[in-house]
Automatic annotation (TrEMBL):
<keyword id="KW-0418">Kinase</keyword>
<feature type="domain" description="MOFRL">
    <location>
        <begin position="330"/>
        <end position="435"/>
    </location>
</feature>
<dbReference type="InterPro" id="IPR039760">
    <property type="entry name" value="MOFRL_protein"/>
</dbReference>
<dbReference type="InterPro" id="IPR037035">
    <property type="entry name" value="GK-like_C_sf"/>
</dbReference>
<dbReference type="Pfam" id="PF05161">
    <property type="entry name" value="MOFRL"/>
</dbReference>
<dbReference type="GO" id="GO:0005737">
    <property type="term" value="C:cytoplasm"/>
</dbReference>
<dbReference type="GO" id="GO:0005524">
    <property type="term" value="F:ATP binding"/>
</dbReference>
<feature type="domain" description="MOFRL-associated">
    <location>
        <begin position="10"/>
        <end position="247"/>
    </location>
</feature>
<protein>
    <recommendedName>
        <fullName>Glycerate kinase</fullName>
    </recommendedName>
</protein>
<dbReference type="Pfam" id="PF13660">
    <property type="entry name" value="DUF4147"/>
</dbReference>
<dbReference type="InterPro" id="IPR025286">
    <property type="entry name" value="MOFRL_assoc_dom"/>
</dbReference>
<keyword id="KW-0547">Nucleotide-binding</keyword>
<keyword id="KW-0067">ATP-binding</keyword>
<dbReference type="InterPro" id="IPR007835">
    <property type="entry name" value="MOFRL"/>
</dbReference>
<keyword id="KW-0808">Transferase</keyword>
<dbReference type="GO" id="GO:0008887">
    <property type="term" value="F:glycerate kinase activity"/>
</dbReference>
<dbReference type="InterPro" id="IPR038614">
    <property type="entry name" value="GK_N_sf"/>
</dbReference>
Length: 442
């Protein structure tokens, strides 16, 4: 089994994982309409009891999720608006699509969010609101509290990202400087009936973390936000207005985000229609079809990217040496989402950095290929989903005057992989359930 076949198989396995969480298929699996009765998972809604249906949403996949809703509900939809990342729009007939910035929110996102709020002001007790949420929903639903600006929110998000904060920590802070996150969108929808259809991009599929939990009770507090700022030593760096707002909230001067006993959640249904484990299991099925002994390592992988890469490389070495934890030919699969602590000034993302760190660890090994890619088709501020590495990656790079260790120190994985043709380029996949990592040993 040569390296080319391993690389081709890795791409096929990755693509199978992504296809399994296609948003159009997911919507059609979970939502059915027959004789005016809308079935959503284990609940039914008689549309004759509602004056109108409204569609709102945010996330990289929200426009793609809206397409089958237009097909299913047709002219029952009175109006709709969704915010998507630039380049992730889809052709819709009724629902308005607004493209905006991610991962740093921008003015286009703020404008789109205000349009959603205005739309909700038209709804009442006899209306049904369907909210579509997917990865990126936090950044794509920016609406800071009145005393803060979008620039304040951008600065805080950037500082937390660069410090290596987890997505849960970033979202906790976002909730407490927002008008709609942390259950506050449900507050705006109430007293309308609310159905949330969710593609999870959060480890463990925690509803209060996905898109910062706009439609579920919030378990985080203002005090938690203060602890997060202390943990990453960025209290002195964030805007004074943000710090003052969080401190006032922690002292009880500002109302907390809605909790589980809030009446706004009495008419709300939240349904996860796609998640990382579905992609991981589909990838394993494809690997088995290709005759690999396959193992799911975990779909809960978190931590510093380059350290997680070392562990995956160590698994490859163990398979080569002892045939454990699975014999050759082997495919070990993991999911989740790692974080990168920015130290350099290069270009890349967590998946490309993972592949670069892994390439260094497996340098010189035969019959090993490692792939790491984002299921959304994008990785950091680049056009790549991730990258592939094998035992000759570092040497091929040296032949082009590239130093792997230097590029890793500079967080410059994109400019390492681009010249040697090892970037994983998929284009937007219109879904997002975190990352897939593959270790193949021939």
């Amino acid at each position: 089994m040569d390296t080319k076949k391993l690389r081709d198989d890795a791409l096929a396995i990755f693509n199978a994982g992504v296809k399994a969480v296609d948003p159009v298929d997911a919507i059609k699996r979970y939502l059915k309409l027959e004789d005016g009765i809308l079935s959503v998972e284990n609940r039914t809604y008689d549309l004759a009891n509602y004056k109108g249906v409204y569609i709102i949403g945010a996330g990289k996949a929200s426009a793609a999720m809206a397409q089958p809703l237009e097909d299913i509900l047709g002219d029952r939809i009175k109006a709709g608006a969704v915010n998507v990342k630039y380049g992730h729009a889809a052709q819709l007939k009724i629902i308005r699509v607004n493209e905006a910035g991610h991962p740093i929110p921008d003015e286009a996102g703020l404008k789109g969010t205000k349009q959603i709020i205005q739309l909700l002001q038209q709804t009442g007790d006899k209306d049904l609101v369907i909210c579509l949420l997917s990865g990126g929903g936090s950044a794509l639903l920016p609406c800071p509290v009145d005393e803060l600006t979008l620039e304040n929110k951008q600065q805080v998000t950037k500082l937390l990202l660069e410090a290596g904060a987890t997505i849960q920590e970033i979202n906790a802070v976002r909730k407490h400087i927002s008008r709609i996150k942390g259950g506050q969108l449900a507050r705006l929808v109430y007293p309308s009936t609310l159905i949330s259809l969710i593609l999870s991009d959060v480890v463990g599929d925690k509803l209060d973390s996905i898109a910062s939990g706009p439609n579920v009770p919030d378990t985080s507090t203002f005090s938690d936000c203060q602890h997060i700022l202390d943990k990453y030593s960025i209290k002195q760096k964030i805007p004074a207005a943000v710090l003052e707002h969080l401190e006032r909230g922690a002292s009880g001067e500002i109302k907390e985000t809605p909790k589980a006993d809030d009446p706004v959640f009495k008419k709300t249904q939240n349904v996860i229609i796609g998640s990382n484990i579905l992609a991981v299991k589909a990838a394993m099925k494809k690997a088995q079809e290709l005759k690999y002994h396959s193992l799911i390592l975990s779909s809960f992988i978190e931590g510093e990217t380059r350290e997680v890469a070392k562990v995956h490389a160590a698994v490859a070495k163990e398979i080569l040496s002892t045939g454990s934890p699975v014999p050759r030919p082997a495919c070990v699969i993991s999911g989740g989402e790692t974080t990168v602590t920015i130290r350099g000034k290069g270009l890349g993302g967590r998946n490309q950095e993972f592949a670069l760190a892994a390439a260094i660890e497996i340098d010189g090994l035969e019959d090993v290929v490692i792939l790491c890619g984002g299921t959304d088709g994008t990785d950091g501020p680049t056009d790549a989903a991730g990258a592939l590495a094998d035992g000759k990656t570092v040497r091929r790079a040296i032949a082009q005057g590239l130093n792997a260790e230097f590029h890793l120190r500079e967080n410059d994985s994109y400019h390492f992989f681009e010249p040697i043709g090892d970037l994983l380029i998929t284009g937007p996949t219109y879904t997002n359930v975190m990352d897939l990592r593959l270790v193949l040993v021939g």
